[in-house]
Design goal:
By secondary structure, the protein is an all-alpha fold. It has 9 helices and no strands. It has helices at residues 37-59, 104-108, 110-117, 120-129, 160-180, 193-210, 213-220, 230-244, 246-269. The structure holds FE2/S2 (inorganic) cluster.
Length: 278
Amino acid sequence: MATVTGSAGPATESTPVALPRRGGPSVMTLRQDRWWIQPLVTFSILFAFVVYVTWAGFQNRNYYVGVAGHPYLISPLYSPCIAHSCVSGSTIRGFHLSWWSFSPALLILIIPGGFRVTCYYYRRSYYRAFWWSPPSCAVQDHHSKYTGETRFPLILQNTHRYFFYLAFLVNIILTYDAIVAFTSPGGNFVVSIGTLVLVVNAALLWLYTLSCHACRHLCGGHVRKFSDHPIRQRLWKITTPLNARHMQFAWASLIVVALTDVYVRLVASGAISDVKLF
Ligand code: FES
């Protein structure tokens, strides 16, 4: 295995040394390729997403089209709408929390936000892109010491499996939103661009959630003999190939959930009309 010495000299197959942490020799890396592109792209997308979702979450309007336009077309950032301030028709069977009168998104986003922040894949990505810990393979760590995820606040990353359970429930609600979005204002079956947007969004969120490492472990973890647990083996076989594509589902679902909010927001504000397909 080729590793690097503390000097700026070239690495060879016979010089096994570890890259220094910050405070060591001044060389940051011996890599000649554009290793910085990946953390830069990651930083740009995640930063843009956080800025947009924060802005959208504080808007507290234009998240629900309403019965006059397309009933049940609601932004995934605001569903389930459970705040006292939710506009008429946006709650599920009128359920809301009377003690919460701020934007419902600020309450709802705790679950998908916590799920993504503690996601194993995103952790790797934002540790590299935001904290440079390390920014890439064989590039010097920007921090002088490493404590892992054993102390506060990073020990909270271990709550991921609980966010998985909550995100699973939110996905059920977003799937419900997508299904009822096939209903026209008159109560008939309808397919519009908005309907399809909600369906694609829900599908990608399911793929992201079911490909989660915690989900795969839930299906096949702590099993000594799969032959004794055929159902768990079957579930494990379904989640394993999904798990291999977790990174792709993570990015796709992240981008589509933001675009879904943009679409619903444009329709709800009257900037565009939801085009009926049939
Ligand atoms: S590991 Fe990414 S969502 Fe669980």
